[in-house]
Amino acid sequence: MLIEINEKALNLPEGSTIKDAIDISTAPYEKGSILCLIKGRKEFEKNINKYKLKTPKGSIIIEMVSETEAAPLIDLWKNKYKEFENLKIRWTSSNEVAIGPIVTDFEPSMDEHSYDDGDVILSLSGFSNESTHLILSKESHSAVYGAPNNNKGVFARIVGGKRTILLLSDDDKIVSVEPVIERKSITDSASVSDLNTILEEGNQLFTYVQIQPNEKSSESVEHLFSLIENNRIEVDYESNSFLGFYSLQGLGKPVEDETIRKRGTVTIRNIGKGIGNVYIYREDRVKASSHTTVGKVLKGMELIDIAKLGDSITVKSNPERIMTLAKSQKEATDYLKSVGIKHERIGITDDDALIVSQEPEFSIDIIKKGTITTKGINKKDLTLIDIFDKETEAPRSSWYFKKITKLVEKPIGALKIHFAFPGMKLTMFEGNDKEAKGLIPENTPEKCIEAGKIGITNMSKKNVGLIGVRFEDNGEFGPTGEPFNSTNIVGEIKTDLDIIEKLKEGELLYIQRYNKKNR
């Protein structure tokens, strides 16, 4: 049997399941994500109510009427609308524009009817169904069109492009006729299915959303890449107009490219409440200075249309993110060669050196430049940190820590040494008092601060946001020299503390989150 998966034809044995289709086609899909299954194109088009007629002078949008009497006319249109493609404008007058002819099986009538401006009529010219024309009414008038006795032949209304109609002449033709896909067309046709659903001939299956990044918003696009790093996003807000993804809320980016938010546009909020939130639009919206456009959906709008609050969606970008951090210099060289990017090494340049920074920093800029410089360090100089970000630990402090170290966006972050004095047995790192605003006491120590525990000064003290670590246990003061009740414990260093103790003021400590993979 023949089906479509992500708009590509696929032949499958009878009785195949969605899982079989994904496995055979190697379609992108992350376990637990939603799926969209449409029975077939004809079933899908039953729920479409708008069509676009493209002409050399512009496009015309028509919408099916709701009168039940018009149902036979609408059915005929949905079965035969493609027959109007490449047909010439047969005539124009002050009242109408006529397109055709095609052949239908309607019976003509000789009655005169009144028509309104914007009516779309099926006319049986010369009282012959072999000369069926499409009539676009320019203004209110009365006429004998030989229209069938179904709603006076009226099956649609003109809802867009009225100016285009006035410009048409008999030298023009209909270039194409296409259904206008709206969210309600998808939701009425599609069903969310599990992997064991049996497929049928003509089914259309969608497994992922493909996004094309906006090359005019390089820094904000990197924010998008951070959101879809695991090729999966979870819906945090749903409305008729858009889906919202809020896991990076609070992570601000500069204003970049602003565009009209058409259906399928992806934006990031760049100011105010909700800064850092990402949105994908289901319906057209006007341009807003508070939203930077970071991309557009190329494939899989069907999944955006059916997604609900809490659903997960598989997402891919084209092109993909270029991220070399946490790779070895050799791994980066091999990877960059495969994507056509020239690689230059600095710092420790040995093949097994660990990359901790890249220039340009952002993927779009790397692609434009065609070259990248990566800085390497010895692997033993990387510090691993167990971050206490569970709800029962230090959720606010850990977010602040990940934000200012860039660990929320990158696999490797950095801390800049603020204070390091030999013999003091502690080091302090630069914080950001603006970002630390509102850092309430949480996960404060009670009796002793153990060596290697990372502390942050909370809002009870002037130096809010300052970060520190001690190299030996202390029963009086936290890692930033503050009392215990002014110290939030945010993590623990799992590697050699001597690496930190040797660093001087102004130097960088490169860090990575401690996990099962790098233990």
Please give a structural write-up.
The protein is 16% helix and 32% strand. The chain is an alpha+beta fold and 519 residues long. This is UPF0288 protein MBCUT_08990.
Name the structural class. Answer: alpha+beta
Which CATH architecture of the largest domain would you pick? Beta Barrel
CATH topology of the largest domain: Cyclophilin
Number of strands: 33
Radius of gyration, CA atoms, in whole angstroms: 31 Å
Q: How many helical elements?
A: 11
Give the percentage of residues in beta strands.
25-35%
- Give the spatial strand order of the biggest sheet: 6-7-10-9-12-5-4-13
Distance, first to last CA: 49 Å
Q: What is the helix fraction of residues, given as a range? A: 10-25%
Largest sheet: 8 strands, antiparallel
State the name of the first-level CATH class of the largest domain. Answer: Mainly Beta
Could you give a short description of this structure?
With 519 residues, this protein is of the alpha+beta class. Helix content is 16%, strand content 32%. This is UPF0288 protein MBCUT_08990.
List keywords for this structure.
33 strands; 519 residues; DUF8179; UPF0288 protein MBCUT_08990; Methan_mark_3; Cyclophilin; alpha+beta; eight-stranded antiparallel sheet; 11 helices
Which helices and strands, and how do they pair?
Layout: E1 2-5, E2 8-11, H1 18-25, E3 36-38, H2 41-45, E4 50-55, E5 58-64, H3 71-80, E6 89-92, E7 96-102, E8 113-115, E9 119-124, E10 132-137, E11 141-143, E12 154-160, H4 162-167, E13 176-179, H5 183-189, E14 190-191, E15 204-206, E16 209-213, H6 218-227, E17 232-234, E18 237-238, E19 242-245, E20 265-269, E21 278-281, E22 291-299, H7 301-306, E23 312-317, H8 329-338, E24 342-347, E25 354-359, H9 363-369, E26 371-377, E27 383-387, H10 395-405, E28 413-420, E29 426-429, E30 453-457, E31 467-470, E32 487-493, H11 498-501, E33 508-513
Parallel strand pairs: 1-15, 16-23, 24-26, 27-33
Antiparallel strand pairs: 1-2, 3-14, 3-15, 4-5, 4-13, 5-12, 6-7, 7-10, 8-11, 9-10, 9-12, 16-22, 17-23, 18-19, 19-21, 20-21, 20-22, 25-26, 27-32, 28-29, 28-33, 29-31, 30-31, 30-32
